[in-house]
Amino acid sequence: MSKTIHNCVIIGSGPAGYTAAIYAARANMNPVVYTGAEPGGQLMITTDVENYPGYPDGVMGPKMMEDFRKQAERFGTTIINEMIDKVDFTGPVHKIWSETGEEIHAHSVVISTGASAKWLGLESEQKFMNNGVSACAVCDGFFFRGQTVAIVGAGDTAAEEASYLSKLCEKVHMFVRRDEMRASKIMQDRVINTPNIEIHWNTETREIMGTDTVEKVRVYNNKTEKESEIEVGGLFVAIGHKPNTDMFKSWLDMDETGYLKTIPGTSKTNIPGVFASGDAQDHVYRQAVTAAGTGCMAALDAERYLTANGVI
Ligand code: NDP
Which domains does the chain have, with CATH numbers? Predict the structure, then answer.
């Protein structure tokens, strides 16, 4: 018996993957979603989401992803809770392998594998995750308005998030582990010239302290070799993200940090029939709503590709 060739396999189940599934299913493409190790993606470790349009009272991240999944299933999406760990895009039929070793064939593939925030690796960071510790100022800054917070990192993201937080919070402590910042000059100037951002150079974050929520951070100055404690209501970790794209390395064009490259204005990668959406290809916006938007683009691009190739 010959192997089934799916019209569209979607790898990943965050807002991008599920939105691609909703569009693909409604276009009769019978999509199959492989959810990956964390069905629902980064939103599953987020509490309140207040900036996703359509939820006037806000929604919990996991509930929102359940809604996305239900909407995708309603139109006939097949959802499989497995990881994909290998691909072969020699084409024209694309080959994909799941963690169980099953070989899957598809005319089109939508990649929505997302990105993972990098963490400091402290035990206390785990303890206060979503309870005062966050990796997304745009998502969670609002909950700390009027308070004193800290941010760790010295790249463009940390600089941008520090500026964002400075508009909401009374004070922002910025912990920079070296005596210089990696962020672009313009972003550095912005944080340096913002009166309520205090930059702590040569400062490493050692421990996040508190009873139920974050109350203090213990930091270590690697020049003076002294430790100190700083009172904060929340800690933002902005030390970079890693796109989950390692398995595509031999096939797809990506930038030096692993973000997939798409043809501007489309979701098309360098391989016909392979489309990229969400945080796997976006290091700038990284929002649920922008991920969903690019998931929609990927499904529409896949549909046009299948039509042009006489598959549907
Ligand atoms: P980056 O990798 O550029 O920066 C990470 C920062 O975190 C570095 O300053 C690094 O310090 C610091 N860091 C890493 N690990 C630790 C640790 N354990 N403790 C303390 N600090 C740590 O990541 P970004 O997310 O900032 O940026 C990713 C890419 O996206 C970049 O190319 C950036 O330019 C781009 N970007 C562009 C924006 C824009 O143009 N508006 C906005 C946001 C991002 P160190 O320098 O010492 O290694």
Answer: 5-116+241-308 (3.50.50.60), 119-237 (3.50.50.60)
